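Before relying on records like the one below, remember that each one covers exactly one chain. Contacts with other chains, cofactors or solvent are not represented anywhere in the record.
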Amino acid sequence: MSDDKEPPNNPFEDLQKQVQDLLKNGNFQFITPSGFNAKRDESDTPDNERGDSSADGDGEPVSVREFDRKPREVKDFLDRYVIKQPEAKKVLSVAICDHYNHVRRCLDNPERAGREYTKQNVILLGPTGVGKTYLMKNIARLIGVPFIKADATKFSETGYVGHDVDDIVRDLVKAADGDVERASYGIIYIDEVDKIASQMSSGAKDVSGRGVQTNLLKLMEDTEVKLTGQNDMMGQMQAMMDFQKGRKRASTISTRHMLFIVSGAFMGMIDSIKKRMENKTIGFASATADFDDESDYLKFAETRDFIDFGFEPEFIGRLPVRVACENLNADDLEEILTAAENNILRQYREDFKGYGIELVVEPDAIRRIAERAESERTGARGLMTVLERMLREFKFHLPSTAVKKFVLTTEVIDDPQAALDKLLQSGESEQKRLMKQDMFDYAERFEEEHGLMLAFSDSAIDALIAESLKSGKTVRALCEQKFKDYQYGLKLISKNTGQEKFAIDKEAILDPDSELNTKVLESYNRVPDSD
């Protein structure tokens, strides 16, 4: 018996090689159980959602081992990006500095890490659009630690309806590019936590309330989370390959030094706070009469209010730092548009600049935008709503015109369509010149592709411009639509007559197919031009 016989192929080795190629090249994309895109290409991740992205100027991030920020420095940095919320900035700055100074000392002295330490996990209260999420994104950006945001409503008690809470810890590791040590000092931000308050009075199975609180409670304490979830096939295969090759790979990650920030609107808790305060014989009842907004009651939230709202005492007890964010009025929204770095007006200026159009916004217009946004009752998000609704038609029409400067005034805000029509009419002559040039450009491309020349007559130019203005289609689109098959007929005419230059008159614009058919038939009766 020969010993040279090839051993049978191991199908697992083939699969192993394929997975290794995928992991090596990074050319894969899959959805993790908590819905985060786990593709390793960072270009897919918005800059303001990367916890380790660089901050500008004096906000350059430092490593946790070198953390030496002071609370006032953190607040000064936040002031550049987030308007108002002075108390929230102050509270967060202190909590963040205390936490990461403790982490740094634990890294310097491992014996300290074993001592009892109560983390300053934070709960942020306040209406939508006041900057809760933006505060945390900028803090993570300043410190330079991995940052992950999740929606509390996506999780369920066991994962059979929603997602397992452990998934967000695994996503934090992915945000740290697989660096388990960096992820262990990261920030986990859970929004809409008020939606998981248990509602036992309904009699229904508590899938998204008490059970989720219990599981989140474990994470906020000190627990070990498996790095590979039961639904993470790629992670399981990678772990298997590492094991076969004898590589030591961490299988769990500790949440001991992770900072947890949770937030929610908690508007349903206002009535109970108000009732409690009004029932006091001596208290805040007289002071509350001057509240400009009902959300101001959230400043006086106590542990009993959270428990009455539906939170477990143990859960709310792991969130010792509590602060309420203030609602934003027109003055605040105006300041966001004028003073905050990376504000939405800057984005719109860049959008128009991409088309070669300068956007100029007058001060009175900024005030009017802020007032309109305040009426939306969605905080800073109202600015985007107002601007998008107001400038949508301008962003659609102006890039195809000769307009190079657009001034946003109160008149434009009050009647955008009339302002747009006026702007288009004022540049009508220049616009027609550009449209005429588009026709010549099309004729040039046609000649390059097919070797045949198109000569548009004045009547054809006028007819095509009129149709473009009436239909809203560009001259280029109309030409491509009308003359998409012209090369076939014109080449046949050229073969019959030797003609290489063709006049396009008004009739060819109004009924191109009929006009071409007529010219083809006539070409059979013509004698080729002689020299």
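The longest strand covers residues 259-264.
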